[in-house]
Specification:
The structure holds two protein chains of two kinds. Chain A is an all-beta fold. Chain A contains no helices and eleven strands. Classes of the chains: A mainly beta, B mainly beta. At the A-B interface, β4, β5 and β10 of A face β4, β5, β9 and β10 of B.
Chain lengths: 111, 113
């Protein structure tokens, strides 16, 4: 059973608009959550993270929101740019040191 | 730093052959992770090491898969014998410990015919 779910396999957004990528998790013991970005033929690269004690973390155009009661987090990209087109993975981790990844959402930002 | 280095980048082999994937983590990183990415299952953790010691190998699919980390700067993932369903992209990642961000290598695309 998947502990981290990204229910939208793809998302298409117009350049300049907001992109919202969603992620749900089932394990309330997760301590932190991360978003990774992946371009074709490359490994995933870290984008932004949030601790379970926070509900928001912002880094430039990227903001992650965490709703612990709903076991839901989202990544907002404002404004979206064509270079943001990639696959975005949500990941969750606990005290063990390993991460559980979702299956990813492919974001396409159209000029 | 050169980042996490993986070799080969591409591997094509026939069913039944032994395959060895290699990884050099970032210097000073205490944790090393092996992942497999497929369309069906996404990015799944196979095994991870802390200070060269395997901590959790519950993600290794079957006995045909084995991983070693003989020293802090080198790890291998071996599949023997390989099967077509092993075709996937295999990633290695490392982490300095004490934090949660993992740094990924470029991956090895394995095709078993």
């Amino acid at each position: 059973d998947q502990q981290v779910k990204q229910n939208s396999p793809s998302l298409s957004v117009q350049e300049g608009r907001i992109s919202i990528l969603n992620c749900d998790y089932t394990n309330s013991m997760f301590d932190y959550f991360l978003w990774y970005k992946k371009y074709p033929a490359e490994g995933p690269t870290f984008l932004i993270s949030i601790s379970s004690i926070k509900d928001k973390n912002e880094d430039g155009r990227f903001t992650v929101f965490l709703n612990k009661s709903a076991k839901h987090l989202s990544l907002h990209i404002v404004p979206s740019q064509p270079g943001d087109s990639a696959v975005y993975f949500c990941a969750a981790g606990g005290s063990q040191g390993n991460l559980i990844f979702g299956k990813g959402t492919k974001l396409s930002v159209k000029p | 730093d050169a980042g996490v280095i993986q070799s080969p980048r591409h591997e094509v082999t026939e069913m039944g052959q032994e395959v060895t994937l290699r990884c050099k983590p970032i210097s000073g990183h205490d944790y090393l992770f092996w992942y497999r990415q497929t369309m069906m299952r996404g990015l799944e953790l196979l095994i991870y090491f802390n200070n060269n010691v395997p901590i959790d190998d519950s993600g290794m699919p079957e006995d045909r898969f084995s991983a070693k980390m003989p020293n802090a700067s080198f790890s291998t993932l071996k599949i023997q014998p390989s099967e077509p369903r092993d075709s996937a992209v295999y990633f290695c990642a490392s982490n300095p410990g004490g934090g949660n961000e993992q740094y990924f290598g470029p991956g090895t695309r394995l095709t078993v015919t």
